[in-house]
Write a structure and sequence with these properties.
- By secondary structure, the chain is of the alpha+beta class.
- It folds into two domains: 5-65 and 202-304, DD-peptidase/beta-lactamase superfamily (Beta-lactamase, 3-Layer(aba) Sandwich); 68-197, 3-Layer(aba) Sandwich (Beta-lactamase), CATH 3.40.710.10.
- The chain has 13 helices and eight strands.
- The chain has helices at residues 5-17, 70-82, 103-107, 118-131, 135-147, 156-164, 167-178, 186-197, 203-209, 211-214, 229-242, 248-254, 291-304; strands spanning 44-49, 54-58, 64-65, 153-154, 199-201, 259-261, 266-271, 275-280.
- Helix 4 (118-131) packs across helix 7 (167-178), helix 7 crosses helix 8 and helix 11 crosses helix 12 (248-254).
- The radius of gyration is 18 Å and the shape is globular.
- The structure holds glutamine (GLN).
- Glutamine binds at residues 67-68, 99-100, 118, 162, 169, 197, 262-263, 288.
């Protein structure tokens, strides 16, 4: 662990410079057309520590589409709302399948494998849509309060793009509904899900917003309890086994941190009792994980000896 902040700044700077050639190894997400327009050269990384330091380099203050990173926050909201009964409708096993795969969901009778694949996040969106009078506003309010920034907003362009290209997510939600595992109407569930995916935030905001997961559920800046210690442990366990989709095994093997990626190119990694790393670079590998983001976090984890295992 580096306690000396100038040293960490220098390390991040060197790491970022060393990534310039890796960008060409990935491709920006095209299946959501609004995401395909992003400049692939943008990249940034930020470390927020529980003792209040923020160290960032590159485009770490440039907002991007958080996409599936939103699944972490939705899960925390649903766990807080539902308690243990949530786990009757959703599992906590790695899927070993692509994030938007439908195959397993029929075999397993509409019970998603875990809350961070799309099927699971749609189930969580149903929980939120069914239990809040305005789940989209509740979600945005939660994000704004964690990031301490009321300017955080939904990118309407991305939202519309997801809505008009969301047939696979609709198929997942209708399949779960056919098994009786979705309460609200499917369009309402999709509306919530696409809204939370379309929020724009930057690396610094995401790293700071997730500090509670590095601090046993409480926000170290305010001492507010965001979730119970047990739920913080459970979320980190799910992120360790499933947060990088069907590359989660490799990520645990080579990095060893609970993490979550999004097809906007962001990756957050939790370092328990230390802080959060957020890396961003839009080009993705075949699993939908940022190529440079993974490489940055991997190098940092090696150099600082951060693996939890
Ligand atoms: N909104 C995206 C989708 O549903 C999120 C996927 C992701 O970030 N992995 O396909």
């Amino acid at each position: 662990m580096i306690k000396n902040i100038p040293d960490l700044q220098e390390k991040l700077h060197d790491l970022l410079l060393s990534q310039k050639d890796s960008i060409t190894q990935g491709k920006v997400a095209e299946y959501i057309p609004a995401l395909a327009k992003i400049n692939p050269q943008l990249m940034g990384v930020c470390v927020a520590t529980i003792d209040g330091n923020i160290v960032g380099v590159g485009d770490y203050q440039q907002p991007f589409s958080i996409q599936s990173i939103s699944k972490v926050f939705g899960l925390v909201m649903a766990m807080n709302r539902m308690g243990d009964s949530l786990w009757q409708r959703i599992n906590m096993e790695p899927s070993g399948q692509a994030f938007n795969s439908i195959i397993q969901l029929e075999w397993e009778k509409g019970i998603p494998r875990n809350p961070v694949i799309n099927a699971g996040a749609l189930l969580i969106s149903d929980v939120l849509a069914s239990h809040y009078s305005s789940s989209k506003l509740a979600f945005l309010t939660f994000m704004r309060s964690l990031a301490n920034d009321d300017n955080i907003h939904i990118d309407q362009n991305v939202y519309q793009s997801e809505l008009s290209h969301g047939n696979r997510n609709a198929a997942l939600a209708y399949l779960m509904k056919s098994f009786g595992n979705i309460e609200a109407e499917v369009p309402e569930v999709l509306n919530h899900y696409f809204t939370q995916c379309s929020i724009s935030m930057n690396c610094q905001q995401l790293a700071q917003s997730l500090l509670f997961l590095a601090n046993k559920g409480s926000d170290p800046r305010t001492n507010d309890i965001i979730c119970s210690r047990q739920d913080s442990h459970r979320v980190n366990a799910i992120l360790s086994t499933s947060g990088m989709y069907d590359q989660s095994g490799e990520f645990a093997f080579s990095v060893g941190l609970p993490a979550k990626s999004g097809v906007g190119g962001g990756i957050v990694a939790i370092v328990p009792n230390y802080g959060v790393i957020c890396a961003w670079s839009p080009p993705l590998n075949n699993y939908g994980n940022s190529v440079v983001g993974m490489s940055l976090i991997k190098s940092l984890a090696h150099e600082l000896n951060l693996s939890i295992y």
